[in-house]
Design goal:
Blueprint (H helix, E strand, L loop, with lengths): L5 H6 L4 H17 L7 E5 L7 H8 L4 E6 L2 H13 L6 E5 L13 E7 L2 H6 L5 H13 E10 L10 H8 L4 E12 L2 E12 L1
Helix pairs in contact: 2-3
The protein binds S-adenosylmethionine.
The site of S-adenosylmethionine has 17 residues, from β2.
Length: 200
């Protein structure tokens, strides 16, 4: 499914920027990450699915997107929209209570999207421990050679710099590259970037 009909797009419960993003730009961004058909992807903190939706298009009918969030209302919105797009059979919702464990088996995921959530995770107790716990879990579920893609922002509310966060991630993963471009940040399309790491 590449071209989504305008009628379906108009019926979605999303911002105009998101509707725009779903008409090709989102998919292009996901492809640039290296995600391909048939893969299993975890979108940790997926909210309403600005990344889960284009990822589900890219992985196709043989792939899976595990869409995890503690905000169950957001997941319901994602799944309602996914149904309209005919993508609900490739998106597996995981509604959590905010626990830092991941209810998935070892070595089963090709890529983890971890976008705009690190400031919330480290904000929970002001230390890097919650982030370390999640990184341990992410390393457990990722296949060897898998990808961790992060979008870091809003760190001003914490005592850490982006370099501190990247340093912590590099204890578990190898820095790969930076992908810059127009991305969805909350409900808006903006110039931004994500950092990518591989799990060796
Ligand atoms: C700012 S939104 C980012 C949404 C999405 N990743 C994106 O970039 O469009 C952060 C999301 O992370 C979720 N979240 C925060 N802490 C979480 C946790 N411990 N477990 C699961 N979800 C969490 C929030 O409920 C929210 O939906």
């Amino acid at each position: 499914m590449n071209k989504i009909s305008k009628l379906v797009i108009d019926s979605l419960e999303y911002s105009n920027d998101a509707k725009n993003w779903f008409q090709g730009r989102g998919e292009q961004f996901i492809r640039k990450l290296g995600i391909t058909e048939g893969q299993s992807i975890l979108d940790f903190g997926c909210r309403i699915g600005h990344y889960a939706i284009p990822t589900a298009i890219v992985v196709g009918p043989t792939g899976r997107v595990f869409a995890l969030d503690k905000d169950h209302y957001s997941i319901d919105i994602l799944m309602k929209n996914a149904k309209k797009l005919g993508l609900d059979n490739r998106i597996i919702p995981i509604k959590t209570k905010g626990e830092l464990t991941i209810a998935l088996e070892d070595d089963m995921i090709d890529a983890v999207l971890f976008y705009d959530i690190i400031h919330i995770i480290i904000g929970t107790d002001g230390t890097l421990e919650p982030l370390q716990m999640i990184l341990t879990e992410v390393s457990r579920v990722l296949k060897s050679g898998g990808l961790l893609s992060i979008l870091v922002d809003h760190l001003k509310k914490n005592n850490y710099t982006k370099q501190d966060i990247i340093g912590e991630i590099e204890k578990f993963f190898t820095f790969k590259d930076v992908l810059k471009g127009e991305i969805m940040h909350w409900d808006w399309l903006k110039a931004g970037q994500v950092e990518n790491f591989s799990f060796d």
